[in-house]
Design goal:
The chain is α+β, with helices and mostly antiparallel strands and 252 residues long. The chain has helices at 55-61, 159-162, 184-193, 214-230, and strands at 10-13, 16-22, 36-38, 41-45, 66-72, 79-91, 97-102, 108-112, 118-123, 148-157, 173-181, 201-211, 234-236, 239-243. The protein is 15% helix and 37% strand.
């Protein structure tokens, strides 16, 4: 089954789909998608030009097919079986972006070679996964200037249990986080994936304000934190506790 769809990221066989992706390395075709592990979830990008409306992607997102996800962090290395992917969010654009979670039940290890030959080995005692193994050598990153957002997120859910000494909900206050990002929605997803599955709290993007450059946004963030500290609302770092009625005015 080498070549064709098997060499370009994913292929369907009957009611099953097999996804092969690189994490932290460029693919053989020269494409370098920003696939990455976020704790136990895999942030994955489809093929160039893929969208949520395409039949195969739609079937994967609707769980109308069983999606097996394989990954590797080393060029020409074997693919490691992550498990059956369960979509936990998808975002438009080209290519499509999907956040995959995986069944925590014990399952056999599957390893795929470059010929996409699947090898089953003995069952694992656990499906614990973490990021790619350490790599060494020179790394270069190019950043460009452009618009940047100052965002405000509010912690929702069982906040009084998390902060019993503040009792924010009982006192009509909210735990907030301020920060800067060129993609506040993505930042929200990253923060929420950091909570273990089943947690009764999550961050919600409340509002954001766009600046012409990252430097301007950074300066505005610092001034906002200074105001919060001066009013006795600052907790630490980028976090503060403010009256719920003030949330929509903080970035005005």
């Amino acid at each position: 089954m080498a070549g064709g769809d098997w060499a370009t990221g994913y292929a369907r066989v009957g009611e099953e789909v097999f996804v092969f992706c690189n994490v932290g390395i460029a693919g053989r075709t020269g494409h370098d998608y920003p696939n990455r592990w976020i704790d136990d979830a895999l942030d994955w990008f489809g093929k160039t030009g893929s969208t949520m409306d395409q039949p195969l992607i739609s079937a994967m997102l609707a769980e109308a097919v069983t999606t097996h996800v394989f990954w590797r962090a080393k060029d020409r290395g074997p693919f490691i079986y992550a498990g059956v992917g369960i979509p936990d969010g998808a975002w438009g654009g080209e290519p499509v972006e999907v956040l995959w979670r995986f069944d925590e039940a014990a399952q056999p290890v599957l390893i795929a070679t470059d010929s996409r030959r699947v090898i089953r080995t003995a069952p694992q005692a656990t499906t614990f996964r973490h990021g790619p193994p350490p790599s060494f050598g020179l790394r270069q990153m190019l950043t460009t200037e452009g618009a940047c957002d100052l965002y405000l997120m509010a912690l929702e859910g069982a906040v009084d249990a998390l902060f019993p000494h503040y009792s924010p909900a009982a006192t009509s206050r909210s735990i907030v986080k301020v920060g800067i990002s060129r993609d506040p929605q993505r930042r929200q997803r990253e923060l929420n994936v950091g909570f273990p599955r089943g947690a009764a709290a999550s961050w919600r993007l409340r509002t954001f304000r766009t600046f012409g450059s990252a430097g301007e946004a950074y300066s505005a963030e610092g001034k906002l934190l200074e105001r919060l500290a001066a009013s006795g609302r600052w907790i630490s770092g980028e976090f503060a506790i403010v009256p719920v009625g003030d949330l929509d005015r903080l970035l005005a």
